[in-house]
Amino acid sequence: MKPAATVPSARNHAETLTIRMAASADAAALSRLAQLDSAPAPQPVPMLVAEVGGELRAALPLVGGPAIADPFQPTAELVAILVERARQLAPAPPRRSVWRWRPLRAVHPVPVHRA
């Protein structure tokens, strides 16, 4: 498993912010978070979670859908961080070549003069 990103919280230096993938052990905490947010119970899909001081504060499904967050805590920045991290983890869209090999066609036919 990849290491989680941990940065000190701006409000309280004793609290740390951890962004990581949800594990099956997080099911109860995710259900509690969904209840606090008046959201439906989260589906068993890959999710990113944000923990502050070891407490789950926000979660975002990687397959799309709304984030769930603790409405009694400031979580707007946490959700924004989760959205950005999900964007970074998403596979890059296939690149289309700008130049395509096609036969050249004259826009206006050039008249041929024969002598």
Number of strands: 5
Reported CATH architecture: 3-Layer(aba) Sandwich
**Helical stretch count?**
2
Our Rg estimate from Cα atoms comes to 25 Å
Strand coverage percent: 15-25%
What's the arrangement of strands in the largest beta sheet?
1-2-3-4-5
- List SSEs in N-to-C order: EEHEEEH
- Major sheet characteristics: 5 strands, antiparallel
Global geometry = rod-shaped
In the CATH hierarchy, the third-tier topology is known as Aminopeptidase
Q: CATH H level: which superfamily?
A: Gcn5-related N-acetyltransferase (GNAT)
How many domains make up the coordinates?
1
The helix-and-strand class reads alpha+beta
CATH class: Alpha Beta
Proportion in helices: 10-25%
| Overall pLDDT score | 82
Q: Kindly, what is the distance between the CA atoms of the first and last residues, rounded to a whole number of angstroms?
A: 79 Å
Stretches with pLDDT under 50, minimum 5 residues:
none
